[in-house]
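Quick question about two entries, pasted in order.
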Amino acid sequence: MLLEAPLPPRPPSAAPPPPASGFVTDVSRLLGGFRWAFMPLGLLALVAVGVHAAADTLDDRLVWLVDRADATFDAWVGASDFTASWVEWVSLETRTRIARGLALAWELAADLVLALPALGYREATAPRPAEAWRAALEAREAETPSWRALWTRCLRKPTPMRWLRPLATAAVVVAGACAVARLLQGTVYLSWRELMGDRIADVAARVLALGALGGVLGTLGWRAVLRNLQHADAACASERGSRAFTRGLLGCVVVVPLAVAAALDASPLLSFLR
């Protein structure tokens, strides 16, 4: 009687190849590799747009101040016959140019204070898990402190720079996001009203504007505030005593009026709902 030899074990089947990624996924990964470049530039652009929107609301006020200064000058030089001819020295066109120059200088100074720190924005990678003994031996403070750590230092060691710079940045980025949303709303309404009618085009433009407003603030706005908070915290931490309190005080004086103008005049949030 013949015995049948046992069959050899069946080789394991090869693992199925990973599914091929789509074109959109590949493009998203490619663009994601350049976040280190376009994220800081996006923060810089948003802050610059917000500062410009706030500065536009101050043109009339600067013209009024220049007119008052010119009136005081005319009253002073007009009191003497020798200097009476100087009354017409500063014309209306010259006063307008002076006001525009002051607004431009103010805007550039605010950009220097609020927008340039955005270029230092970096995204930290997630830390690799480590053994408990290694984590205990290598425990150290994170290079980029969290929101909680930053706000804790703001409460325990308050300085004008730690408080005013982030608040001014928040007001400016809201104004910049409103400017972007208004541009989108006007473009959509004007291009769609002949095709869909005024009512539908108006509703669609408002919805898209609100989406753009939320998208800009959700992707760039809070990062700009965080970056300025980090910059202010690092600058104040490098000083001691009274020097930490006075650090960046001149920059705060420059940006606070623009921040107030951005919050009151350049951020029409309710206009997208009415």
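Here is the second entry:
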Amino acid sequence: MNDIKIGNIIIGVNHKPFVIAEMSGNHNQSLDRALLLVDAAAEAGAHALKLQTYTADTITMKGAHTIKDVNSLWNGKELHDLYKEAYTPWEWHKAIFDRAKEKGMIAFSSPFDETAVDFLESLDVPLYKIASFENTHHPLLIKVAKTGKPVIMSTGVSSIADIDESVRVLRNAGCKDIILLKCTSTYPATPENTNLNTIPHLAQLHNCIVGLSDHTMGIGVSIAAVALGASVIEKHFTLNRADGGVDSAFSIEPHELKALVVETERAYLALGKVQYGVQQAETKSVFFKRSIYVSEDIKEGELFTEKNIRVIRPGDGLHPKYYTTIIGKISKKNYKKGTPLIFDF
């Protein structure tokens, strides 16, 4: 699989994780708050800021459905009302994108219908994200693929056949750079239903860069994902969960986002390569391994016993593997207590 370059950032298995801060509806319908979210994401070190581009009318219609699930964060809400509360006004996009670029971040969005693609093209976004609930919306996939820009696609609520078909649709329509994100589309998700072991399989199956769209609480799951090969991490974020909002309950705060950036990079750096033997960084530490030392004065002609030799630190004496061989042998010279034992037999 090939690396993908977006601006000055390279995304790939041999590069540090690409961390996306997902604003979603956490602006709470305030442009000022949206811009503060951009600033906070940049300060935390996020590499990209992502919006969602839709209106209530482009995603559903009034009266289509009311959520009736006591376990849902949005129980009792009518879908149209929920999306009206959560959407990011299109007239805000340019100001938000411009602020993100000023702060050194990549700015892009998830379009939810074809008109959103046209709008985002007018803002010259560098890539697109396909949300899990849209990943079988083939007309949208074709529209996005024809832009020729990289596509990140979440794979929640999808069978293996769905994902395969959608990848083929994107590639056949001209998309050369695809990143697939493992995703569990529950809000919040739990570690138990995240199934991170899918990540390396997803990469192998589609020969592409992979990552995680993480809806769990905290950052532990994302760090684990990097250890399994995730090159991209997407996470919802907010200024303060206590402020409320449609997605606040499963969003991380700025200090957590900063920790996510730092710790996912550490996880990536720690992967390294298959390595055995003494590393350069360990050469001084070899001295502190154990060896055989004289624990009581020994005169020439005396036997080595469990009372007069011990295996201790440091490693100046014989290797501990010779201990049982030496016991019962005759010393050929005098030894002082505290002396490393060397071959003399």
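Reply: The chain has eleven helices and twelve strands. The longest strand covers residues 48-53. Hope that helps.
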